[in-house]
Known about the structure:
By secondary structure, the chain is α+β, with helices and mostly antiparallel strands. The protein contains 18 helices and 24 strands. β23, α16 and β24 (about 655-660) form a beta-alpha-beta unit. The termini are far apart. The model is unreliable at about 655-660 (pLDDT under 50).
Amino acid sequence: MPSLINTLHAALVLSTQPNARIKHIDIEAASQVPGFVSFINHTDVPGSNKSASWTDDEEVFVSSIAQCIGAIIGVVVCESEESARLASNLVQIEYELLTPTILTIEDAIIHGSYFGNELCLRQGDIDKGFADAEHTLESTVWIGGQEHFYMETNCCMVIPSNDDKEVTLYLATQCPTTAQELTALALGQDVSRITCHVKRIGGSFGGKELRSIPPCIAIAVAAVKVGRPVRLNLERHIDMSITGHRHPFKVTYKVGFTNEGRFSGLDVQMWNNAGCSLDWPKFVMEKAVLHMCNSYQFHNVQVRGRVCKTHLPSNTAFRGFGNPQTILACETIVEHIAAYLKRDPFTIRHLNLFKEGDITHYGQKLEQWNIPQILDELSQSSDFIQRQLNVEEFNRTNRYRKRGITIMPAKHGIGFTVKFLHQAGALVHIYKDGSVVLTNGGVEMGQGLYTKMIAIAAEVLDCNVDRIRISETSTDKVPNMIPTVASITSDLNGMAIRHACEQIRERLNTFLVAENNVNISWEDLINRAYHARIDLCARGFYATPDVFDADFSQNRASFNYFTQGAAVSEVELDALTGDWHMLRVDILMDVGTPLNPQIDIGQIEGAFMQGVGLYTMEELIWGDKKKYKWIKPGELFSRGSDSYKIPSCSDVPLDSSKGIGEPPILLGASVFFALKQACMAYREQQGFSDYFILHSPATVERLRMACADEFTHR
């Protein structure tokens, strides 16, 4: 959006050290930059400085100790964006380094650095499960983090009103109400005086839930201090450094099973790297613990999770919310068992699938359970068995190029683990000319939400979609909105819009009956209804029935429903270089009746490729004291497209057949395991038949080293 005439520009002054006390800040050089207006820090916050996060453990501006590199120490405000960025780099900060500095999951385990208590779910008798087992296996899996890499970096503009203390926020966020409330706390104002507007945002994937808000609050404090509009646009390398990522996981497991391959017991311990503040990691770990078993019945289960506190920027929500990490761990267990028993992994998977009416390890009965049918249909439609034989033949006749093919299922629980978030509101206005404006509590970020909401309204109101528009998402139109997250926004807001439209439609139907004229145009109907003093505005509200808060102490949780699907992925690997490409991908998902099939197809394609990126190429490299000694400890090295690689158009499968649904990011793991099979084929050819663990992401370098031969063993 264009800036106002008197808009100032801001740049953040960030900590360059983790776990360090600020001893002195020198702005002398910065203040000499032409156009310099002001420097703002914690002393300028009129309200609470501990309001940068809903968990109350994060400051707007660092007051004493910077927990991580990238913590916001201050804001420089100038007449131009170039001057602001130059001045921010000239601010000199003197630090006192503190110890211990904890950067990794291993560091946190050694020092006992955790947020909260251990999460645990149990089903059956784990000791009996292992006693009944004819075999047991143990191992550890590491799953790396992931950058959201949305097209539009975080940005905001804050406009203060010097007359009535009102403040208007324009920002890219999935959580307008949270931004409104936390800004009000920082400014010491009532929430009603803060209005947050979100027209649309250029991608998010979870990265603009909570991490978009601290910079905005800092800019709001600056705008109120200088009494002028202030704008912030984060550069890509700054955005990547400070706004958090998908949580890295460490997963250790012990699994018991029979000679046939039936599971009898599973004991899992998980850790995630939360970073320096609580943000979402506890809920990410909850979702991970709940999804650990994927689509399989392990009978006797114990799943434990710890949230590690480290001196990195706080990690945050990301598409899948803990499930992508655990599905990789779960499917690794399946592959481990198959390799040990020398059986086809597909056979092991099929043998242990949940059945209709089975009870999950958190006590939910599975209803409308279609994974067995989906797997059977997909294996036939993709010609999986014949293609397996073709892959084996290819591998026999090619020495340095190997293929792999994998079929795997996935389930994803839709909904929140807390009851109060299952609600949404909407506002519908019909104007005299028959045009309609919808306002809902969801944010459009490229997922097609607005298109779906318009379709729902058009169906209920019985008018053409071209008469309906959505202006924006705004806290002064729909208050107390929940975040646009968890693949549930269309469900909740769609029902709220339906509720509002049904009220208006009922009034119009009553009017038509009274008029005894049902064959009039939409425009004529609305005009007549207005002159008959019919209310053409309605507010809708929806609260999901039959949901409850998850209670881990009682082994009790539930989801509204499960998105279920499966994928077959076939890859070809160059064993000498680790380079590879996808030959074909087949995905089949049960999504009920889609509101808009084309949008859902787009979501599937994007989500699947994002999953491929997570599991095979996207690697976050942080400086530490062991593995990456050449990078400053706590500093992100891969903070741009030159050092952080995401899938491109050349990585898209050569041949693909897709169902529709969301979220298929989980099924990107099928590519990971197909690559692992290709590595196994090469290793066996070289005389290395032992099982090996492949950690995620399976980068070209890791794949090459996994292809054990005379070169890797030198």
